[in-house]
Structures are given as structure tokens and as C-alpha cells.
Amino acid sequence: MSEWQQISGSVTAPKGFKATGIAAGLKPSKTADLALIFSETEAIAAGVFTTSEVRAACVDYCRQRLQAKASARAVLINAGQANAATGELGWQDALKSAELVAAQLNVPPESILLASTGVIGKRIRMDAMESGIPTLVASLSDEGGETAAKAIITTDLVPKTIALETIIDGRPVRIGGMAKGSGMIHPNMATMLGFITCDGMVATHLWQEMLSRAVNQSFNQITVDGDTSTNDTVIALANGQSRTAAIMEMGKEAQIIEGMLTEVCQYLAKAIARDGEGATCLVEVQVTGATDNESARRIARTIAGSSLVKSAIFGRDPNWGRIAAAAGRAGVSFHQEDLRIKLGDFLMMDNGQPLDYDRSSASHYLKKAAEGAYLKEDTVLISVCIGNGSGTGQAWGCDLSYDYVKINADYTT
Question: Which end of the chain lies in a sparser environment, N or C, as judged by fewer CB atoms within 10 Å?
């Protein structure tokens, strides 16, 4: 963290980026539902997408665009309709959306990337899209990051943004990000959209590699309900407007940029988990002692995704047995006599044996986290050690409340 600092702003904090969000009439609520991120110059583009076999048209569109040309000028994002499982007509809607915004921006359609969020099986309301795009483009602003972030949310309670700055070669280099996500959140990837901008210049292959690693340590380590979706997208643009030297291979400067990128992704990932549908607290699982990092991350994901663990946390029940059981079924080999479990500062198991602890105080710890929603005190920390290996991993989730069922029972009605 000493290599960079958090600054105000979002995706427009880096030089050469503008953004906006408007109410185009795509959502019945008449709230903001159409967003645009625009780079004043062609930007190197990287993307990571859902692993689902059922994919939205925008996902296949972006994959094709990035395979043909790993650069872009803009990202158009709509809320209200996922445009997933919509067949050929949905694909044509995606193509037309790109053409419409490209014409208004006076750039080639190939320089436009797309993302959608909303109800699966619903095509984009193209009449609203077509009438809204001129207003959208006209409202682009270098201070429009927050309005863009508000325009992409669905069941989210709050928009999610961050910006960081570092100094390279005496010049400021910034990375900004925004994301949406609240339900259908689970690794590979979650139902979430993430957009990252950077004014540094990074080689195309290196920027993609950096993003993939950052996603594996962030968005692929969060879970709310065990469901993944059709539209999951993370797009990162780097336009070089900081005027620093191009980063062509791994080295000190590349490590700083990747560290910032990972920090942005982790911040947004935790914000998504914290905002889980019906959630009252953020759950962070830290695993150490594994033979490798991937094994540690796998155990952390399993614990964070356990419905029994999540339910116990909501019930303020410090039930370490559920944590132990989840660790044991993660598919990672370890000796149970090496297992060590802590809930906050409460050591509950060591050397595979249960320990006496103050149950009432541990329950109060869980209650205090719920009362500290959106504050630093809102995090329930679960620490698990499985041996003496060097592998470490983290995962983030939330508790599972009654409201989760209420929200999703009424989602399309």
C-alpha cells in the first residue's frame, strides 16, 4: 500500500477518460439504467468473462472483439435486460447497440465494448436504447464516474467505486474502477460487472495477464449465494495518457501497476460481497499453511460459500464445527490434527482439537459486525491454518439472511 494512495474519483480519475449515466427508460423504475465509459484515445483492452455455457450476447460480442483487436474506445453498459438466452435477435441487438453509440462518438463499431445486466431472457429495449444514446454521449464528463456507477446497479444497495494513484518516472499514474453485483455471486465468475481504467501504458499481453491474475485473487474469490450467471464481465482499459514509458515486461513498474490493479479489484470484490442481497456483514476467510496458494484459495472459497457457515453467522452462532467441515470438504488434502481455527480473536480449535472459549463474547463479536454495516467493524474474520506450507489465500462472502429469500422470490415480479 505504500506504493500508492487512494484518491477521489472512479473510472474518470485516470487521465483521458470520461463517463456518464442516464435514465433511458430501460428499467421500469425509471432510474438511471444506461452508462458509458469513453477514452479520448484508443486504449489497450483486456477482459475476463463468465465461464457459463449460457452466455449473454454482450459476452460473446466482447470476446470476439478482443480476439480480433485488443483495444477499445468505449464501453456501453445497460441495466434492466440481461440480453441473455435471447438467440439471434439478442445478438443483433448487441450489434446495433455498438453501431449506435459508435456513430454518436464518431469511432468505428469495432472500438465499442458492451455489457448488460438485468433479467435473463429479456432483450434490450432497443427503442429506449436508440433514443437514449444521443443524450448519453452528450452528457459525457470527466467527472461522470459516479453517475455511471449508479446507472449499472440492479439489486445493489450502493454503487461501488474506487481510484488509486502512484508515481512512476515522476508522473502520476492512476487506476479507477467501478462494479455492480449483489446476488448470484460465486467464483468463475460471479454475477457482477467490473470496469477498470488506467492512464498508464502496458503491453497488450501483459495487461491481459495482469487482469487475469487480479481477477483470480478478487472477483473469483467472492461468494454470496453459490450461483453464477450469464453476463459476468470485467473489462480493463489502459490508454497511456499518463505519458509514462510503456511497460513491456514484468519489472518494478509492472509490479506496482499490477499491485494497484489487484487492490482495485479486491476493493470492488469486497464491496460486492458486503452488499450481498439481504446481508448484514462481510465475511473474510484467511487460509494459511497450504502447500500452494490455489489450495488455500480453494479452502477459503469453500468456507465463505458454505450455507451452514453463512447461516450460523447470521444467527450469531460461533459454530466452528461448520467451518471445520467446510474446510474438510474443499478437496484439498491436509492432516486434521494440523487444523487451527479462529473467529476474530477467538481461538476455537488448535492442533485439530477443540478449545474452550467464551461463547457469549464470540456471539457478541458476530452481532457487533452486523451492527457495523458499511463500517470497518462490519467484517467477520475467519482464520484457518491447515499446516506449515507457504500457501495462503483469501475469500470474501456474507451472511445468509431471511431477506435474501424475500429479494429473490420477488425479483422478476
Answer: C
